[in-house]
Amino acid sequence: MSGDLPKFYFRIRDNGATVFRVDTENRQRRIEMEEIAVVNVRNGNVKPHGDRPLTDAEQIAIADWMAARLAVLSRRDIDDIHRAVDHMNLTTQWAQSKATDDQLEDVTDTLLLAMHDLRSVLVRKKADRLLKAQKAAE
Known about the structure:
Radius of gyration: 24 Å
Largest sheet: 4 strands, antiparallel
Strand content: 15-25%
Strand order of the largest sheet: 1-2-3-4
Number of strands: 4
Order of helices and strands: EEEEHH
C-alpha cells in the first residue's frame, strides 16, 4: 500500500488547502503527514509552514495541484449554472402546474427580483461583449 500513496496530500479548505508531505518510510511503517504549507487558490498565495522553505519539488507539486484545483472549480461553476437553468425550468413548471396561490405568494416577489437582477446583469454583459467584438472587428 505505501508504494501507492502520493508524496503530498492536500486537505481541501475554504479557498485552498493545507499541504502535507506524506511519509511512509519510517521504522513503524506508519503513514506520517507533515504539514508543509497552506495555499490559497483565489489569490495564489502559498505560505510555507514553519521556518523551512519549500523545496523546488514541493513548489512544483503545489503549483500543479493549484492548476488542477482551479480547473475543477471552474468546471463546477459552469455545471452549477447549468443546474440553475434546469432548476429554473422546473420552477416554471411547478409554478404553472402545481403551485398553490399561497405558495406563489410566498415566492413571487423574491423570484421576480432575483430574475430581474440576473436579467440586468446578463443584458449588460452581453452588450459589453457585443461592443468589444464590434471594436475588435473595426
